[in-house]
Amino acid sequence: MFSSVLIANRGEIAVRIAKTLHARGLRAVAVYTDPDADAPHVAAADVAVRVPDYLDGAAIVEAGRSVGAQAVHPGYGFLAENAAFARDVERAGLTWIGPPPAAIEAMGDKIRAKATVGPAGVPLVPGSDGSGLDDAQVAAAAREIGFPVLLKPSAGGGGKGMHVVTRDADLDDAIAAARREARGSFGDDTLLVERYVTDPRHVEIQVLADAHGTVVHLGERECSLQRRHQKVVEEAPSAVLDGRQRHAMGQAAVEAAKACGYVGAGTVEFVTNADASEFFFLEMNTRLQVEHPVTEEVVRIRGRRLDLVAEQLRIAAGEPLDYDQGDIRIEGHAVEVRLYAEDPARGFLPTGGTVLDLVWPERARVDAGVAVGTEVGSRYDPMLAKIITSGPTRAAALDRLDAALAATTVLGVRTNLAWLRTLIADDDVRAGRLDTGLIGRLPAPVEDLPDDVLAAAALAGLLDLADRSGGDAPFDRIGGWRLGADPAPARWRLVPAAGASGDPVDVAVAGPPTGATVTVGTGSSAGVPRPVSARRDGAELVLVLDGTTRRFRVVTSGGADGVRWLGREGGVWALREQERLRAARTAAGGADGPLTAPMPGTVTAVEVAEGDHVTAGQRLVVVEAMKMEHVVSAPTDGVVKDLAAKAGAAVALDAPLVTVVPDPGE
């Protein structure tokens, strides 16, 4: 067994691999780029080496050699399924902790993968089986299969370039779009066309194969809860498979692994119909999957728990698997959710910022790649962590997951945390009625701003003022001193911040924090005064409003913006105090201020110049992050001024880009 392993990755998977290395007494070597110099995966390693980029294979191999690493674990993403990199690792005399490069190549191209596993009896989706089809041939194959059909790039995954075509009239445009997207994402516009399975479920099988001919499967994972072909929730086992179906799908996965000479940990993905009465091979992922923890939580081998990374290490070291299929049992149920830096209320746009406060649940497994102080940007995948729970039944695992999400707090960065709680509470999700289109059919998330959150923000401000004012002198009292009268109420005008939208709301608090009244609302919509009190309990704010007690995590960002972040029960809100003069200017009909970046990213195009006259809806600036483009358009007819955006420049969330001054008379 090697004693030192370089982890060719970052984030939560690098931290997770380091834990297993340390548990086995091995040295963990990290690599990092300049933005990640202080990242958690660097702190988790014994030694870390700077590299220019996580895709620079030559630099990563040299980093390993320079510090005496004997093996390389690629994790997932980046170079994990790059056969050329695997060969470079082996040529450098290091052990590649992954499948043979030939197996990576065979499964990396969808057309070649189907040609490899088909003769082994693995069920294939009816569709084209040749490469290099021109547009006419793709169209002919689609018509022969019958609509609906799925167009998909041969060279890549992740849902990029996939198009479902339901009628002949849309076919030509869909082929052109799929080729264009495939070429842009993978540099290869080769297309496959397959029968589209309606209401499909996505079920995958984890396999392990050693170098001595033993191949086993470790049951299935249900991954049907997806958004834009990206997985959001995974569970093991599937809620729909029975023992017979599990055996059939497991055997098909084993045969697929044998057909390509697989060695190591891999995942064979299948698409099934609603009741899993038929299933078809999709692809094989020749690496560790993001969702591997749910398999670890339910698989028992002769009574012992499974660690897939440890199994990868043993197999790469040449050790045989010391068990066979009959030794493997599935016990209980596990569910995992992916915590993303994204804003559900804004179409799931990527977000960013500095993690100011972080609380993970105590009764759950958390694989995280962030810590307090971590800068979340747009350079890498927006997944911050995975939260996993298990239980004796599916219902118990989901209940524990809901409790875990309620106990989680991430402040400083907008995430999908609250939306995840809503998702797993959905009736269809709870009943196991899953398919890959379910999330897309759910109502669009909406932002809310409950009264208790507004009251908590005001009371937190009141406590801060009390801390600063200190003494009992009349002019130090919050709200001011008035002759012969009680102090005036402390007033705040609060507005959603950090990318959230909404109108300003006035909040007035009369009396000390330990026993006051609060009035929430603006003008004629102001409510009646309500009893309220607040106190600090360590890092939490305990608020009692109308006799109901709630606990908040509260933190205020530094800098001029002064955004106050509040979190409770999985919900997160960001508020700032609006200057009353600014609010008056806006209400009076003046300029609404600059248009700002809708997400952290890179300005890819600036299509106007200062002084240009523009019309409402005209494109002004394009911002890109995580291969997602967002166009900033003119809100009204007017003149461009204060153009801060520059093509190629990185921008933060809410960074000013450009101002459009309305034309006189508009």
From TrEMBL:
Residues 114-317 form the ATP-grasp domain. The keyword Ligase applies. Its EC number is 6.3.4.14. SUPFAM superfamilies: Glutathione synthetase ATP-binding domain-like, PreATP-grasp domain, Rudiment single hybrid motif, Single hybrid motif. Residues 585-661 form the Lipoyl-binding domain. It is an enzyme of class 6 (ligase). Its cofactor is biotin. CDD domains: biotinyl_domain (cd06850). InterPro entries: ATP-grasp, BC-like_N, Biotin_BS, Biotin_carboxylase_complex, Biotin_carboxylation_dom, Biotin_COase_C, Biotin_lipoyl, CPAse_ATP-bd. Residues 1-444 form the Biotin carboxylation domain. The keyword Lyase does not apply. Keywords: ATP-binding, Biotin, Ligase, Nucleotide-binding. Pfam families: Biotin_carb_C (PF02785), Biotin_carb_N (PF00289), Biotin_lipoyl (PF00364), BT_MCC_alpha (PF21139), CPSase_L_D2 (PF02786). This is biotin carboxylase. It comes from Actinomycetospora straminea.
